[in-house]
Design goal:
single chain, about 140 residues, mainly alpha, 4 helices, about 0% strand, elongated
């Protein structure tokens, strides 16, 4: 291997930054939607799913966000610096995936357009923050 492609052997600092990036992105993408939903809940009459207990709902969201955070961080890491400094572009690349996800959920019985719009607002906020975090921490 050449020194420029020494990605296969992750040093302790690189591994630490990957784990830290994952944890920080997870915190951001898990908490911001609750802040946005919470601040708009009474105004828009938003409710948590009735079929789930609050603990089951939070666990469901957490599991989904763990997968998203891991994928978000790993894809950025595997771009081998081609996205370093382009955190806003990285966020914009991810945005359609989330917007279409929100729209597709409106097809489900218990998900309204109001909830989808609030979800999109959350994603417009947390994707750039998350992308900035990984751009700041993940360097090769």
């Amino acid at each position: 291997m050449t020194s420029g492609s020494n990605r296969s052997s992750l040093s302790a600092p690189v591994m630490f930054n990957l784990i830290l990036s994952f944890l920080l992105v997870l915190i951001v993408i898990f908490t911001i939607p609750f802040i946005i939903y919470g601040s708009l809940a009474s105004f828009l009459d938003l409710k948590t799913p009735a079929e789930l207990s609050p603990i089951a709902f939070l666990l469901n969201v957490l599991i989904s966000k763990i997968g998203t955070a891991a994928t978000f961080v790993l894809i950025f890491n595997f771009t081998n610096n081609s996205l370093n400094g382009h955190w806003l572009l990285y966020a914009i690349i991810w945005l359609p995936l989330f917007i279409f996800g929100e729209i597709s959920q409106t097809i489900e019985q218990n998900y309204s357009w109001k909830e989808a719009v609030v979800g999109i607002i959350s994603e417009i906020i947390y994707l750039p923050i998350s992308a900035y975090i990984v751009d700041l921490l993940i360097k090769t």
